[in-house]
Design brief:
four-stranded antiparallel beta sheet; about 20% helix
Amino acid sequence: MRWLKSSASVDSECVEVTAFGATCFVRDSTDVEGPVVPVPAASWAALRDAIRGRG
């Protein structure tokens, strides 16, 4: 899987996200071996849009 980090991140402390089918997976970029949280892709998109001011 290819993990992506926000381009707005100014340091290494951020979340990373990857998608597989209808699910996005979110993890702490400083603990890549730590827990991964599954989130429905539609919910992740809604959160992303709300943060960007489009939701």
